[in-house]
Specification:
The complex is a heterodimer.
Chain A lengths: L1 E5 L3 H11 L5 E6 L2 H11 L3 E3 L5 H6 L7 E4 L4 H13 L5 E5 L6 H6 L4 E3 L1 H12 L6 E6 L4 E7 L21 E6 L5 E2 L12 E7 L3 H9 L9
Parallel strand pairs in A: 1-2, 1-4, 2-3, 4-5, 5-6
Antiparallel strand pairs in A: 7-8, 8-11, 9-10, 9-11
Chain B lengths: L1 E5 L3 H12 L3 E6 L15 E4 L5 H6 L7 E4 L4 H13 L5 E5 L3 H9 L3 E3 L1 H13 L4
Parallel strand pairs in B: 1-2, 1-4, 2-3, 4-5, 5-6
Classes of the chains: A alpha/beta, B alpha/beta.
Protein backbone atom coordinates (compact mmCIF):
# COMPACT_ATOMS: atom_id res chain seq x y z
CA UNK A 1 0.00 0.00 0.00
CA UNK A 2 1.24 3.52 -0.79
CA UNK A 3 0.58 6.00 2.03
CA UNK A 4 1.17 9.75 1.97
CA UNK A 5 1.32 11.50 5.34
CA UNK A 6 1.02 15.30 5.16
CA UNK A 7 2.46 17.11 8.18
CA UNK A 8 5.75 16.34 9.87
CA UNK A 9 4.96 17.55 13.38
CA UNK A 10 4.83 15.19 16.34
CA UNK A 11 1.78 13.33 15.01
CA UNK A 12 3.26 12.87 11.53
CA UNK A 13 6.61 11.87 12.95
CA UNK A 14 5.02 9.31 15.26
CA UNK A 15 3.02 7.89 12.34
CA UNK A 16 6.16 7.70 10.22
CA UNK A 17 7.94 5.65 12.87
CA UNK A 18 5.00 3.26 13.20
CA UNK A 19 4.52 2.89 9.45
CA UNK A 20 8.22 2.41 8.84
CA UNK A 21 8.13 -0.60 11.13
CA UNK A 22 5.28 -2.17 9.11
CA UNK A 23 6.62 -4.18 6.19
CA UNK A 24 5.13 -3.94 2.73
CA UNK A 25 4.09 -0.29 2.80
CA UNK A 26 5.60 2.57 0.91
CA UNK A 27 5.33 5.80 2.90
CA UNK A 28 6.00 9.44 2.02
CA UNK A 29 6.03 12.14 4.71
CA UNK A 30 5.37 15.66 3.44
CA UNK A 31 6.59 18.63 5.50
CA UNK A 32 6.14 22.22 4.37
CA UNK A 33 8.73 23.86 6.58
CA UNK A 34 12.25 23.41 5.17
CA UNK A 35 14.18 23.21 8.44
CA UNK A 36 11.84 20.65 9.92
CA UNK A 37 11.84 18.62 6.70
CA UNK A 38 15.67 18.50 6.71
CA UNK A 39 15.72 17.41 10.33
CA UNK A 40 13.20 14.61 9.65
CA UNK A 41 15.06 13.56 6.53
CA UNK A 42 18.27 13.11 8.48
CA UNK A 43 16.52 10.69 10.77
CA UNK A 44 14.00 8.99 8.49
CA UNK A 45 15.76 9.22 5.13
CA UNK A 46 14.27 9.61 1.68
CA UNK A 47 10.68 9.01 2.75
CA UNK A 48 10.58 12.65 3.87
CA UNK A 49 9.84 15.21 1.16
CA UNK A 50 9.87 18.98 1.56
CA UNK A 51 6.78 20.60 0.02
CA UNK A 52 3.23 21.93 0.39
CA UNK A 53 0.82 19.02 0.80
CA UNK A 54 -2.16 21.15 -0.22
CA UNK A 55 -0.70 22.01 -3.61
CA UNK A 56 -1.94 19.86 -6.47
CA UNK A 57 1.24 20.05 -8.57
CA UNK A 58 3.37 19.05 -5.62
CA UNK A 59 1.13 16.13 -4.64
CA UNK A 60 1.31 14.96 -8.24
CA UNK A 61 5.13 14.94 -7.98
CA UNK A 62 5.04 12.62 -4.97
CA UNK A 63 2.72 10.21 -6.78
CA UNK A 64 -0.63 11.09 -5.24
CA UNK A 65 -2.47 9.53 -8.17
CA UNK A 66 -1.24 6.08 -7.17
CA UNK A 67 -1.68 6.58 -3.40
CA UNK A 68 -4.06 4.27 -1.55
CA UNK A 69 -4.28 6.42 1.53
CA UNK A 70 -3.65 10.09 2.31
CA UNK A 71 -3.43 11.22 5.94
CA UNK A 72 -3.38 14.96 6.76
CA UNK A 73 -2.16 15.66 10.29
CA UNK A 74 -0.97 19.28 10.34
CA UNK A 75 -2.04 21.71 13.06
CA UNK A 76 -4.04 23.67 10.44
CA UNK A 77 -7.58 22.45 9.78
CA UNK A 78 -7.85 24.37 6.51
CA UNK A 79 -4.75 22.64 5.17
CA UNK A 80 -5.91 19.21 6.36
CA UNK A 81 -9.30 19.64 4.73
CA UNK A 82 -7.84 20.87 1.45
CA UNK A 83 -5.28 18.04 1.33
CA UNK A 84 -8.06 15.47 1.78
CA UNK A 85 -10.41 17.09 -0.73
CA UNK A 86 -7.62 17.33 -3.30
CA UNK A 87 -6.73 13.67 -2.63
CA UNK A 88 -10.33 12.50 -3.02
CA UNK A 89 -11.61 14.71 -5.81
CA UNK A 90 -8.51 15.40 -7.91
CA UNK A 91 -6.44 12.25 -7.46
CA UNK A 92 -9.29 9.86 -6.58
CA UNK A 93 -7.41 8.37 -3.67
CA UNK A 94 -9.41 5.56 -2.04
CA UNK A 95 -9.22 6.84 1.49
CA UNK A 96 -8.43 10.20 3.09
CA UNK A 97 -8.02 10.76 6.82
CA UNK A 98 -7.80 14.18 8.49
CA UNK A 99 -6.77 15.38 11.90
CA UNK A 100 -9.34 17.88 13.19
CA UNK A 101 -7.89 20.48 15.54
CA UNK A 102 -11.15 22.36 16.11
CA UNK A 103 -13.69 19.64 17.03
CA UNK A 104 -16.52 21.76 15.59
CA UNK A 105 -15.08 21.10 12.13
CA UNK A 106 -15.55 17.37 12.32
CA UNK A 107 -19.03 17.17 10.82
CA UNK A 108 -18.14 19.54 7.98
CA UNK A 109 -15.10 17.41 7.10
CA UNK A 110 -17.26 14.30 6.84
CA UNK A 111 -19.83 16.10 4.76
CA UNK A 112 -17.13 17.26 2.35
CA UNK A 113 -15.83 13.77 1.66
CA UNK A 114 -13.16 13.12 4.29
CA UNK A 115 -13.48 9.41 5.09
CA UNK A 116 -12.23 9.54 8.64
CA UNK A 117 -11.38 12.22 11.19
CA UNK A 118 -9.22 12.16 14.30
CA UNK A 119 -9.89 14.68 17.04
CA UNK A 120 -7.79 14.83 20.19
CA UNK A 121 -10.53 16.81 21.94
CA UNK A 122 -13.10 14.16 21.15
CA UNK A 123 -10.82 11.35 22.30
CA UNK A 124 -10.17 13.07 25.61
CA UNK A 125 -13.89 13.81 26.05
CA UNK A 126 -14.68 10.12 25.55
CA UNK A 127 -12.21 9.29 28.32
CA UNK A 128 -13.78 11.88 30.61
CA UNK A 129 -17.27 10.60 29.91
CA UNK A 130 -16.15 7.04 30.57
CA UNK A 131 -14.99 8.00 34.06
CA UNK A 132 -18.23 9.74 35.03
CA UNK A 133 -20.29 7.50 37.34
CA UNK A 134 -23.44 8.04 35.34
CA UNK A 135 -21.64 7.87 32.07
CA UNK A 136 -23.88 8.03 29.12
CA UNK A 137 -23.10 6.90 25.58
CA UNK A 138 -19.34 6.53 25.21
CA UNK A 139 -18.37 6.35 21.55
CA UNK A 140 -15.79 3.62 20.95
CA UNK A 141 -15.57 3.39 17.19
CA UNK A 142 -17.20 4.94 14.17
CA UNK A 143 -17.78 2.40 11.43
CA UNK A 144 -17.00 4.61 8.48
CA UNK A 145 -19.39 4.59 5.57
CA UNK A 146 -22.12 2.48 7.18
CA UNK A 147 -23.54 5.21 9.43
CA UNK A 148 -23.04 2.93 12.43
CA UNK A 149 -20.99 3.27 15.57
CA UNK A 150 -19.90 1.08 18.43
CA UNK A 151 -20.77 2.52 21.83
CA UNK A 152 -20.49 1.64 25.47
CA UNK A 153 -23.28 2.30 27.99
CA UNK A 154 -23.73 1.44 31.66
CA UNK A 155 -27.13 0.35 32.84
CA UNK A 156 -28.48 2.79 35.39
CA UNK A 157 -30.97 2.30 38.17
CA UNK A 158 -34.46 3.16 37.01
CA UNK A 159 -33.62 2.92 33.31
CA UNK A 160 -36.34 1.40 31.10
CA UNK A 161 -34.10 -1.61 30.28
CA UNK A 162 -33.16 -2.44 33.89
CA UNK A 163 -34.27 -5.93 34.89
CA UNK A 164 -35.63 -6.77 31.46
CA UNK A 165 -34.66 -9.41 28.91
CA UNK A 166 -33.20 -8.22 25.61
CA UNK A 167 -36.03 -9.82 23.63
CA UNK A 168 -38.51 -7.61 25.52
CA UNK A 169 -36.72 -4.38 24.70
CA UNK A 170 -37.77 -2.13 21.87
CA UNK A 171 -34.38 -1.33 20.37
CA UNK A 172 -33.77 1.35 17.76
CA UNK A 173 -33.69 0.05 14.20
CA UNK A 174 -30.38 -1.55 13.13
CA UNK A 175 -29.19 -1.78 16.72
CA UNK A 176 -27.30 -4.80 17.99
CA UNK A 177 -26.33 -5.37 21.62
CA UNK A 178 -23.07 -7.21 21.07
CA UNK A 179 -21.66 -7.81 24.51
CA UNK A 180 -22.69 -7.53 28.15
CA UNK A 181 -20.01 -6.98 30.79
CA UNK A 182 -21.57 -7.91 34.13
CA UNK A 183 -20.70 -5.85 37.20
CA UNK A 184 -18.39 -8.66 38.40
CA UNK A 185 -16.47 -8.43 35.12
CA UNK A 186 -17.97 -11.58 33.56
CA UNK A 187 -18.44 -11.37 29.79
CA UNK A 188 -21.64 -12.54 28.19
CA UNK A 189 -22.61 -12.76 24.57
CA UNK A 190 -26.22 -11.72 24.84
CA UNK A 191 -29.12 -13.94 23.86
CA UNK A 192 -32.77 -12.92 23.71
CA UNK A 193 -33.29 -14.25 27.24
CA UNK A 194 -30.34 -12.34 28.75
CA UNK A 195 -31.61 -10.01 31.44
CA UNK A 196 -29.92 -6.62 31.80
CA UNK A 197 -29.13 -5.62 35.36
CA UNK A 198 -28.14 -2.34 36.96
CA UNK A 199 -24.36 -1.87 36.72
CA UNK A 200 -23.97 -3.97 33.56
CA UNK A 201 -21.92 -2.47 30.80
CA UNK A 202 -23.33 -2.88 27.34
CA UNK A 203 -21.34 -2.73 24.11
CA UNK A 204 -23.68 -2.05 21.22
CA UNK A 205 -23.61 -1.26 17.52
CA UNK A 206 -26.06 1.56 16.84
CA UNK A 207 -26.94 3.83 13.92
CA UNK A 208 -25.56 7.36 14.26
CA UNK A 209 -29.01 8.84 14.90
CA UNK A 210 -30.05 6.34 17.59
CA UNK A 211 -27.82 7.68 20.35
CA UNK A 212 -30.54 9.53 22.28
CA UNK A 213 -32.94 6.60 22.10
CA UNK A 214 -30.31 4.15 23.37
CA UNK A 215 -29.19 6.52 26.11
CA UNK A 216 -32.76 6.81 27.33
CA UNK A 217 -33.30 3.06 27.21
CA UNK A 218 -30.11 1.99 29.00
CA UNK A 219 -29.33 4.91 31.27
CA UNK A 220 -32.69 6.60 31.67
CA UNK A 221 -31.05 9.94 30.82
CA UNK A 222 -32.70 11.78 27.97
CA UNK A 223 -29.81 13.89 26.74
CA UNK A 224 -26.06 14.26 26.94
CA UNK A 225 -26.24 17.73 28.45
CA UNK A 226 -27.76 16.62 31.73
CA UNK A 227 -24.90 14.17 32.33
CA UNK A 228 -22.12 16.71 32.13
CA UNK B 1 -27.81 41.96 -0.16
CA UNK B 2 -26.23 40.91 3.15
CA UNK B 3 -22.55 40.11 2.62
CA UNK B 4 -19.93 38.82 5.05
CA UNK B 5 -16.34 39.45 3.95
CA UNK B 6 -13.40 37.62 5.47
CA UNK B 7 -10.16 39.58 5.30
CA UNK B 8 -9.79 43.35 5.23
CA UNK B 9 -6.59 43.63 3.22
CA UNK B 10 -6.42 45.84 0.15
CA UNK B 11 -8.78 43.65 -1.85
CA UNK B 12 -11.16 42.98 1.03
CA UNK B 13 -11.36 46.67 1.93
CA UNK B 14 -11.97 47.67 -1.70
CA UNK B 15 -14.78 45.13 -2.15
CA UNK B 16 -16.33 46.07 1.20
CA UNK B 17 -16.25 49.78 0.32
CA UNK B 18 -17.79 49.25 -3.08
CA UNK B 19 -20.60 47.08 -1.71
CA UNK B 20 -21.24 49.57 1.11
CA UNK B 21 -21.38 52.44 -1.43
CA UNK B 22 -23.94 50.48 -3.42
CA UNK B 23 -26.14 50.16 -0.33
CA UNK B 24 -25.49 46.53 0.58
CA UNK B 25 -25.25 45.43 4.22
CA UNK B 26 -21.62 44.49 4.80
CA UNK B 27 -19.80 42.86 7.71
CA UNK B 28 -16.01 42.58 7.49
CA UNK B 29 -13.95 40.14 9.55
CA UNK B 30 -10.22 40.38 10.13
CA UNK B 31 -7.95 38.91 12.78
CA UNK B 32 -6.04 42.18 12.90
CA UNK B 33 -8.02 45.22 14.02
CA UNK B 34 -5.55 47.54 12.31
CA UNK B 35 -6.73 46.23 8.94
CA UNK B 36 -10.01 48.16 9.30
CA UNK B 37 -8.10 51.44 8.94
CA UNK B 38 -8.08 50.64 5.21
CA UNK B 39 -11.81 51.36 5.12
CA UNK B 40 -12.85 54.96 4.33
CA UNK B 41 -14.88 56.94 6.88
CA UNK B 42 -17.97 56.74 4.64
CA UNK B 43 -18.03 52.92 5.06
CA UNK B 44 -21.36 52.07 6.73
CA UNK B 45 -20.81 48.35 7.41
CA UNK B 46 -19.76 46.49 10.55
CA UNK B 47 -16.17 45.55 11.44
CA UNK B 48 -15.47 42.50 13.60
CA UNK B 49 -12.11 41.34 14.89
CA UNK B 50 -11.81 37.56 14.53
CA UNK B 51 -11.23 34.70 12.16
CA UNK B 52 -13.64 33.75 9.40
CA UNK B 53 -12.86 30.09 10.05
CA UNK B 54 -14.26 30.36 13.59
CA UNK B 55 -17.90 29.24 13.76
CA UNK B 56 -18.75 31.58 16.61
CA UNK B 57 -17.28 34.60 14.86
CA UNK B 58 -19.18 33.74 11.71
CA UNK B 59 -22.41 33.54 13.67
CA UNK B 60 -21.63 36.85 15.34
CA UNK B 61 -21.12 38.30 11.85
CA UNK B 62 -24.65 37.16 10.98
CA UNK B 63 -23.64 34.36 8.63
CA UNK B 64 -27.00 32.60 9.04
CA UNK B 65 -28.82 35.55 7.48
CA UNK B 66 -26.15 36.35 4.90
CA UNK B 67 -26.82 36.08 1.18
CA UNK B 68 -23.16 35.87 0.29
CA UNK B 69 -19.76 35.18 1.81
CA UNK B 70 -16.50 36.38 0.29
CA UNK B 71 -13.19 34.90 1.51
CA UNK B 72 -10.29 37.28 0.85
CA UNK B 73 -7.80 36.38 3.58
CA UNK B 74 -4.19 35.71 2.67
CA UNK B 75 -4.14 31.90 2.89
CA UNK B 76 -5.79 29.75 0.21
CA UNK B 77 -6.65 26.94 2.58
CA UNK B 78 -8.17 29.21 5.17
CA UNK B 79 -10.30 30.87 2.50
CA UNK B 80 -11.44 27.49 1.17
CA UNK B 81 -12.29 26.22 4.67
CA UNK B 82 -14.26 29.35 5.59
CA UNK B 83 -16.14 29.52 2.27
CA UNK B 84 -17.14 25.86 2.46
CA UNK B 85 -18.25 26.40 6.05
CA UNK B 86 -20.43 29.33 4.98
CA UNK B 87 -21.97 27.31 2.17
CA UNK B 88 -22.31 23.85 3.68
CA UNK B 89 -22.72 24.54 7.40
CA UNK B 90 -24.57 27.85 7.37
CA UNK B 91 -26.41 27.53 4.08
CA UNK B 92 -25.10 30.71 2.45
CA UNK B 93 -26.11 30.65 -1.22
CA UNK B 94 -23.10 32.38 -2.72
CA UNK B 95 -19.62 31.58 -1.42
CA UNK B 96 -16.74 33.31 -3.17
CA UNK B 97 -13.12 32.46 -2.43
CA UNK B 98 -9.82 33.84 -3.60
CA UNK B 99 -7.50 30.91 -4.34
CA UNK B 100 -4.04 31.89 -5.52
CA UNK B 101 -3.08 28.42 -6.73
CA UNK B 102 -4.79 28.05 -10.16
CA UNK B 103 -5.25 24.27 -9.86
CA UNK B 104 -6.82 24.47 -6.44
CA UNK B 105 -8.97 27.32 -7.72
CA UNK B 106 -10.25 25.11 -10.55
CA UNK B 107 -10.94 22.15 -8.25
CA UNK B 108 -12.91 24.10 -5.67
CA UNK B 109 -14.85 25.85 -8.38
CA UNK B 110 -15.99 22.41 -9.50
CA UNK B 111 -16.84 21.60 -5.88
CA UNK B 112 -19.36 24.43 -5.59
CA UNK B 113 -17.44 27.54 -4.56
CA UNK B 114 -17.09 30.57 -6.80
CA UNK B 115 -13.32 30.88 -6.94
CA UNK B 116 -10.91 33.15 -8.75
CA UNK B 117 -7.14 32.93 -9.00
CA UNK B 118 -5.27 36.25 -8.87
CA UNK B 119 -2.17 34.35 -10.03
CA UNK B 120 -3.84 33.20 -13.22
CA UNK B 121 -5.49 36.55 -13.90
CA UNK B 122 -2.25 38.39 -13.05
CA UNK B 123 -0.21 36.27 -15.43
CA UNK B 124 -2.69 36.90 -18.24
CA UNK B 125 -2.67 40.65 -17.60
CA UNK B 126 1.13 40.74 -17.54
CA UNK B 127 1.27 38.86 -20.83
CA UNK B 128 -1.37 41.08 -22.42
CA UNK B 129 0.45 44.23 -21.28
CA UNK B 130 3.66 42.97 -22.81
CA UNK B 131 2.06 42.54 -26.23
CA UNK B 132 -0.35 45.48 -26.06
CA UNK B 133 -0.11 47.91 -28.95
CA UNK B 134 1.89 50.94 -27.78
Amino acid sequence: MYIIVVGGGMVGYGLALELQAMPGHEVTIVEREGGRAGQLREELGEMVVHGDGTEIAFLESVGASRADLVIAVTADDGANLVTCQVAKHWFHVGRAIARVNDPRNEELFHRLGVDSTISATRAVMAQIEATLPEHTVVPLLRLEGSGLRVVNLRLQDGAPAAGRAIKDLVLPRQTLISLIIRSDGALEVPAGESVLRVGDEVIAVIPDDAEDEMRMLITGTPSDASAL
Amino acid sequence: MRVVIMGCGRVGAAVATRLSDEGHTVTVLDTDGFAFSRLPSRFTGTCLIGSGTDDRKLEEAGIRRADAFVALASGDNRNILAAQKAKHMFGVQIAVSRVKDPYRSELFDQLGLRTFSPTKVGAELAYDSLFASP
